[in-house]
Amino acid sequence: MGKTIIEKILTSHSGQECQANDIVVATVDFVMGQDGTSPLAIRAYENMEGQELFNPDKVALVIDHSSPSPLEGVSALHTIMRNFAKQKGCRIYDIGEGVCHQLIPESGQVGPGSLVIGADSHTCTYGALNAFSTGVGSTDLAGGLVSGKMWFKVPETIKFVCNGVLPAGVYAKDLILYLMGQVTADGCTYMAAEYTGEAIQALSMEGRFTVANMAIEMGAKAGLMEADEKTFSWLRQFTEQEFTAVSADPDAQYHKVLTFDVSELEPQVAKPHRVDNVSPLSEVAGTPIQQAFIGTCTNGRLEDLRIAAAILAGKKVHPDVRLIVAPASRKVYLDAMNEGIIQRLVEAGAAVVTPGCGPCVGTHNGVPSDGETVISTANRNFKGRMGNSNAEIYLASPASVAASALTGVITDPRQFMK
Amino acid sequence: MKFQGKCHKFGNDVNTDYIISGKYKFKTLDMNELAKHVMEDLDPDFYSKVTAGDFIVAGNNFGCGSSREQAPLAIKHANIGAVLAKSFARIFYRNAINTGLPVLECDTDLIDAGDVLDIDLSQGVIINRTKDMKIAVKPLPQVMIKILHDGGLAPHFRKHGGFNFD
Ligand code: SF4
């Protein structure tokens, strides 16, 4: 019987011919933790009486969620991570380097066919590289650090076939928001998503990361894509390591195959307080906003900043709006500087903060006030997500966020693109 | 393991930000401190309403969102005996088993807020005392039973030196 991408990766990493619903113990190629999860993982590691890491070269800790530290308590947790990394000889990415889900792909250590676990739910992002990568908790992470292994139930797969060509002004973010709205927040629970079709093939790698990133918002264990020439040339910037593409067999068994045509898609938003509370942006156009945020592991990449800067160039952010920009990594930041993107954003009135998660998770860098409305390029708009449960968060593409920052109300970016 | 307690009811898609907000979880590893803020954004007085051994009862997709293990740990430290839901998000489910918080998948429409339940974990039985009815529980996969039996993943590793499901 044919296999899906995830069945193939789990077969090659467990040494056991497996298919959906089997339970396997598989070897992992890379293990990652961030500052919200690593301190607990280190505690669990000690609790397991772990001595050495299974392989320090395949482990990285990232200080990105609360970075630089805004508080004494956070500083203490960061110290635990730095000491552990020093002692065990693994890589630590410290403040200013960026968001884990940008840094790990940029490290060149993950590619087609890899199996990655990360103690962060958006680890599913690397599915854009044709890897099976998934989020785990701290104790599972500790198990991975000690043994280089993890147990998995092989998930069933839902295939999303996206046909057609995205219209101008409509982006990967609009596409994934639309899919979210269609399948809902638990539409893929306990399952993997495979994204395919000409609309996915046409996306840049950056756009593909955006789509894979939000697989977890549907409850999926992974959001996988096929590897093509774009995947390999993107990887060649970062590594000489050879990877082999993993594709699904033509007779692979899917839980469901969903087919969409994106040719008529409009810009989308997710409305408060649910990621699957999605509608065309036009439905909420005109809603006043006080804060706009461009960044995160969903949309803090070079292409995202470029699109935003093109809309903001030579104009000024609305006086009632604060625009915050967090480049996803130091590389993104530097590349954006070299292209003059940062100059254009700052001239327009943006506050550019340290590469990292920025205000995404409400620890610092832009907590909204009571009754305020934020439009953000992030992946979650839960109540309280940005640190205040009396604020409302809309999710949208970088273009929509930039356009809204200019007008002070939720705005269709296409009106700035004529 | 047997529990008796009363139920606190929540809806669908209770995410880990609601269980324990990101603004707290980064500050400390002191779970007793985090426990005070459990469910705060959904019910500001939740922590003070709980009597030790009470149950959280919810709809679909409980624990969706982030991978934070602080979520099951804070629930446990708020003295909740078990979480019952129609379905769980997978990372939360694994984290709960790994850290020894009992989680049961069952038809929670048969339970109302304030109902008193008897739960026998080893038998996988829930009795709703208030409504005088038995509620079927979806059994855990064998691997998870093994991990729970060992007291969580860390004790499992101490005992076996790694994964051992034979
Ligand atoms: S940017 Fe936001 S969603 Fe992404 S890893 Fe950081 S906190 Fe999580």
From TrEMBL, chain A:
Its cofactor is [4Fe-4S] cluster. Its EC number is 4.2.1.33. Binds 1 [4Fe-4S] cluster per subunit. InterPro entries: Acnase/IPM_dHydase_lsu_aba_1/3 (IPR015931), Acoase/IPM_deHydtase_lsu_aba (IPR001030), Aconitase_4Fe-4S_BS (IPR018136), Aconitase_4Fe-4S_dom (IPR036008), HAcnase/IPMdehydase_lsu_prok (IPR011826), Homoacnase/IPMdehydase_lsu (IPR006251), IPM_dehydratase_rel_enz (IPR050067), IPMI_cat (IPR033941). GO terms for biological process: L-leucine biosynthetic process. Gene3D superfamilies: Aconitase, domain 3 (3.30.499.10). It comes from the Bacteria. Residues 7-284 form the Aconitase/3-isopropylmalate dehydratase large subunit alpha/beta/alpha domain. Keywords: 4Fe-4S, Amino-acid biosynthesis, Branched-chain amino acid biosynthesis, Iron, Iron-sulfur, Leucine biosynthesis, Lyase, Metal-binding. [4Fe-4S] cluster binds at residues 297, 357, 360. The keyword tRNA processing does not apply. Pfam families: Aconitase. The keyword Membrane does not apply. GO terms for molecular function: 3-isopropylmalate dehydratase activity; 4 iron, 4 sulfur cluster binding; metal ion binding. It catalyses: (2R,3S)-3-isopropylmalate = (2S)-2-isopropylmalate. It is an enzyme of class 4 (lyase). Pathway: Amino-acid biosynthesis; L-leucine biosynthesis; L-leucine from 3-methyl-2-oxobutanoate: step 2/4. Catalyzes the isomerization between 2-isopropylmalate and 3-isopropylmalate, via the formation of 2-isopropylmaleate. Heterodimer of LeuC and LeuD. PANTHER family: HOMOACONITASE, MITOCHONDRIAL (PTHR43822:SF2), HOMOACONITASE, MITOCHONDRIAL-RELATED (PTHR43822). NCBIfam families: hacA_fam (TIGR01343), IPMI_arch (TIGR02086), PRK00402.1 (NF001614). Belongs to the aconitase/IPM isomerase family. LeuC type 2 subfamily. This is 3-isopropylmalate dehydratase large subunit. It comes from Desulforamulus aeronauticus DSM 10349. The gene is leuC.
UniProtKB/TrEMBL annotation, chain B:
One of its GO terms (biological process) is L-leucine biosynthetic process. Pathway: Amino-acid biosynthesis; L-leucine biosynthesis; L-leucine from 3-methyl-2-oxobutanoate: step 2/4. One of its GO terms (molecular function) is 3-isopropylmalate dehydratase activity. SUPFAM superfamilies: LeuD/IlvD-like. It is an enzyme of class 4 (lyase). InterPro entries: Aconitase/3IPM_dehydase_swvl, AconitaseA/IPMdHydase_ssu_swvl, IPMI_Swivel, LeuD, LeuD_type2/HacB/DmdB. It catalyses: (2R,3S)-3-isopropylmalate = (2S)-2-isopropylmalate. Keywords: Amino-acid biosynthesis, Branched-chain amino acid biosynthesis, Leucine biosynthesis, Lyase. Residues 44-104 form the Aconitase A/isopropylmalate dehydratase small subunit swivel domain. Its EC number is 4.2.1.33. Heterodimer of LeuC and LeuD. Belongs to the LeuD family. LeuD type 2 subfamily. Catalyzes the isomerization between 2-isopropylmalate and 3-isopropylmalate, via the formation of 2-isopropylmaleate. This is 3-isopropylmalate dehydratase small subunit.
